[in-house]
Amino acid sequence: MSNGKKNTLLLLLLFCSSLAHAQKQVPIERKDTIANESNIIKIVGNHSNKGAANNALDVLSGQAAGVNVTSNGLDRMAMLNSVRVRGTTSIIGGNDPLVLIDGVTSDVLTLSTIYPADIESFRILKNAAETAMYGSRGASGVIEVKTKKGTGRGFQISYEGNVGFERMYKHLNMLNAEEYVATAKALGVFCNNGGFNTDNYKVITRTGMVNNHYLAFSGGTPQSNYRASFGVMDHNTIIKKMDYNVFVAKVDVTQKAFNDRLTGDFGVFGSSFKNHDIFDTQMLFYSAACQNPTFPAGTDEHGNWLKNESATHVNPPGIVLDEKNDSRDLNFDAHIKLSYDFNPNWRISTFASYLYGSTENGMFCPTWVWAQGNVYRGEFKKEEWLGNVALSFNKQIGIHRISAEASSEYRKLTKTAFWMYAKGIPTNDFGYNNLGATAVRPYGGTESTYEDQSLASVMGSVTYSLLDRYLLSVNARGDGSSMVGDDNTWGFFPSVSFTWDMKKENFLANVKPLSMLKLRTGLGQAGNLGGISAYTTMNTVRQTGIVPVKSSPTVTLGMVRNNNPDLRWETKTTFNIGADFGFFANRIMLTAEYYYSKTSDMLYAYEVPVPPFAYNTLLANIGSMSNRGLELGLSVQPISKKDMELNINMNLSFQSNKLISLSGDYKGMSMTAANVTAIGSLDGAGQNGGDNNVVYQIVGQPLGVFYLPHCKGLVKNENGSYFYDIEDLDHNGKVDLSDGGDRYIAGQATPKVTLGSNISFRYKDIYVALQMNGAFGHKIFNGTGLAYTSMACFPDYNVLKDAPKKNIVDQRVSDYWLEKGDYLNFEHLTLGYNVPLKSKFVRSLRVSCNISNLGTITGYRGLTPMINSYVVNSTMGIDDKRNYPLYRTYSLGLSVQF
Amino acid sequence: MKTIIKYILAVSLMLCFSSCLDEHPKDQLDQEAIYNNADNIYKNAVASLYNYIGSNQESEGLQGTCRGIYDYNTLTTDEAMIPIRGGDWYDGGLWENMYQHNWNANDINLYNVWKYLFKVIVISNQSLSIIDSHKSLLSTEQTRNFTAEVRAVRALFYYYAMDMFGRVPIVTSYDVKLEQVTQSERSEVFKFIVDELQDVAPQLADEHSNKEGDYYGRVTRPVVNFLLAKLALNAEIYTDDNWTDGKRQDGKSIYFNVNGEKKNAWETCIWYCEQLRQEGYELEGDYASNFAVHNESSKENIFTIPLDKNLYLNEYHYLFRSRHYKHGGAYGGSSENGTCATVSTVKAFGYGTDHVDNRFKTNFYADTVLVDGKKIYLDNGKPLVYMPLELKLNLSNSPYKQTAGARVGKYEVDRTAYSDGRQVDNDIVLFRYGDALLMEAEAKVRNGEDGSRELNAIRDRVGMPHVEANLDNILKERLLELVWEGWRRQDLIRFGEYTKAYDQRTPLEKEFTGFTTVFPIPQRCLDLNKKLKQNPSY
Prior knowledge:
The complex is a heterodimer of chains A (898) and B (538). With 898 residues, chain A is mainly β. Chain A contains eleven helices and 43 strands. In chain A, strand 28 and strand 29 (669-671) form a beta hairpin. Chain A is globular and about 90 Å long. Chain B is mainly alpha-helical. The radius of gyration of chain B is 26 Å and the shape is globular. Chain B starts with a helix and ends in a 10-residue tail after the last helix.
């Protein structure tokens, strides 16, 4: 580790010097920060090539093969903010990678609040041998974020900021008032003509504003230095009443003592994240599309809304905007790291951190949309203590170098929650701010919970390198958790990796064009408990309900789920093999890696038979799942001159996932779960339950496949309308749309290939950068198209412009609306200018302009193919009325270093 | 050397950590803590079962919510349907399939019903084992009474399970392994239920459970007596293990041991109905008062689901689901414009003739609707007029898309309801004495006796002329008296009408065999327990 420390410092220095030449791009640096972790991809957080990256997730997006980041700020609901490292490996959850900010456990949300300028580097750990040092916490990959520290080179100030605006550029094309009335007339149906011509998208949208400012100053000497930064983000989205703002402050201090033998790092970090959202965004967009366009945009003179009572799933969009779903996240953490070098070979280091996070929620549904109104407040708090002690040894003896480390760690996490629902509000004016002014607070609507989890680990690792060419690393760790059964507390997870730096071999030393060649492979295991909560192994009881006992309401206690005292660690075994190539002084770099991972003893809420069980799910370790993939990274620098530079980076990930089995033994009983389970269906008018399922989980298939009836085409009814001609796939003379009926596997919801790419070009002090991402090989069910085309809903619900011509009066789900989801998306385009200054005070000055969400190339006929294609839940793969109108962000940026 | 140090370090750390890895929950208790005295054992092992009689969850509760037992006993019959109204109520073909008997083993709602019924059965078994293992904290009488009440609740749920699914597994112990869960013939399940109920009845209090007081909402002896009368009345069906062979035993040759005497099915039914009379049940003077907002004082209701919008979670969705949006709007909430009485039902009430049954107005909303004496106006400016005779299964191309069909009435509208009328104070009536009288009339007729006294008592109460007590009139009277009460499927099956053409329905191809009189065992259950076998023809 001592080596690593020095190298990291070196890198830090390198990076700081690069600040002065900000145009010099080092997007993916493959520096061996630590000898035995040479295969860790390191993304240097020099965000300048990415223009208006306002959010750490933006910086990460598209940068590393095998990492899928879906973020577009926080405001494209249908996509969810998610990060997946090598896809989904566990069904129960715990698929979010471990995010560590300066060693302190964090999460994707907090990461998204960090200003890119505060980030020095990301490291993404994917292989078992790499994640070994984080054990179970890192089972789904690790994103290590290192924030900037003081440089020890005297006083410095830097400011970065950008301001911009957002404009809607595309929305679904529904009938306008005139067409709506004409269509109703042509069909001979009564439509309620309110006499207006309202553009309902105009009702809910506005010009969004983006404001980001960030200030950092640092100072001190190499022995004693500090850095402090403050960031403010304010974002008004294009949807009225939806906005968020972030305030972040952090301070880091480094102090050395005893002839530099003792190094102490202290840091505190605080962030506040406020988000204003709408309670039911699906209803908002459903209403904007399908509300009768002849109805007025606002209320009448008496303050009443004109509602179409028969269209129960939509409301005047203006009312829906009055709904609230607000949250406020506060995070505070502090950490201290002390390391002491006894001599050049031995070092002891300790790390301790404390984290406090709280989330407050407030929801409000006015009486307009919810009879008697509905109000909710909730508070969720967590506290985490983490302590770590490590002893390391490092020695070079001739051609041998050996390093070893033993460490132990203890982590305790406490979560508490308190929430309350109330209804029967006397006025819509209080919002969620006065719960006292409510008539009813029903049983079950008020709750508080407490949960604590503890995790202990011991780990040993030995790394041996010969001639600086052959490097073998062996790790062994034991993870103990409070959450598994008493007999299974400890899990043992070993890993081994090997690297061969072939370029250092004599036979390649003279091959001039080849500047780098490294082979690496690894095999290892990690335990995962990410998706479960505490106490599931205990025979505990909670309230089961409220009944009259002697006519007085009485709360009863009892079992509320099947308990499993035998819960074990879910184990993921990963094998990886890869190579890094560099040609022409690394102007062309290629990296390729193949991996295979198998999740066994897979934790899942398995479906179990009732009887003998009381409840139909049991959290247990029964099934298994595999993931395999190939990750390719290519970085080319075709032009590299003093005045001109062109960089092209591209990474491609091929991924395939398979649910191997959900069957096995539990307590001597042979458990056979259903092979086909529906996980996603449509939601909306006339689409409540029945044979409406779209996405399934099927054994032997990837998680999330489309299992649909086949539509042969459209058939005309006597009255001129059309219906879907569903094929009798099993030729039994009867079309059966149910789960076991005439359905076939029609494609998968997760992309088979994902692409991330950025291209940057510099001429003298001017540079242009373009960032793209893409996903291929998956399908999307266009549920929005199905619903908004169906004339069965007209005129209660407005329809798409081409719907009257198609005249389909049928809402049945079939592959007619299953489309290819392939897309290539242009995320950011930046034009920047580094103002050549010869000032004593200003060290660098850069201005830039940026366009985000430039456009998407796709064959998908819905609004956008960028929906949730990664997170396994009920929305996966289904475009169902949730999409935001498309918008672009235009911004101007300024960056100054003093 | 280093390895040894490391090893020692590792082991010592593991030991030290292990003690830090125990769990100490604060928001839940260890099971033992809640069964520490007689009061708590009653609350948590016996009273807790009453949480499951009603519900606010779909497919749960014996009545009140949607897509559960009630829907499968009502929307599958000639009584009611939910038509497709353009963009509304297609719901993946669910309602149409119910009406046409086109369900299959993959029907997720049937699976949910199965899970619900057997959840309560398994939890009842757990309660029995808890009572048994905590005997030392209870008096002999308490042990006996608690056990009896739990066994009665379990039998009640077994009754619904057997009625719907036919061959179901009898599980009487909490500590049972999967391989021991095998189906019994329907007649065995039937016998088990009857034996259990007869066995525990003497230990149960002879109290009116619908009335507020110590026994409110509980399974008391009259509840069990009513259930035994039902079981006896349907004994021909429940003892038929091959329901697709067109043969069944005659009720006169099915014997029960009642109070030491051997009685045939009809005599048994009559005896238990007589018990109810002796227990003080009588017809309310006003038919509608049994369904009033405050119906806890009814002399007629035997078993109800206690509803109180401020105290309990149980809900009643059927008025909300049925009435037109504007109709719900007039009560200050919203509605779903769903369930309708079939054309044959409103005709049976004499709708459209000069001789409309006096119960029609209580049971249905039809024609022009008045709320507080005022008409309700639709968007097109015309008043809301329900069109009972325009009902079709698919109304998408009908001019009466939204207004066809008479709507669910019966229960008095609670004007202070919450959740758009789903949370009300009317207790839901599961069993009532009016039904017992009709059962007695039927059993007498089937046994060759005269049932006109009981039948005409029902008609007298609502001011309708007397009719002859024959089976046709009794089935008809059951519709008139008990519409919307969830009995129609069972009645049609008992009268052999369920599988025939009725209203706008034509039977399925092989339905004459009677296979649809029992629902399929849900496919998930078969997948999860390979020992279970599907019912015939599914």
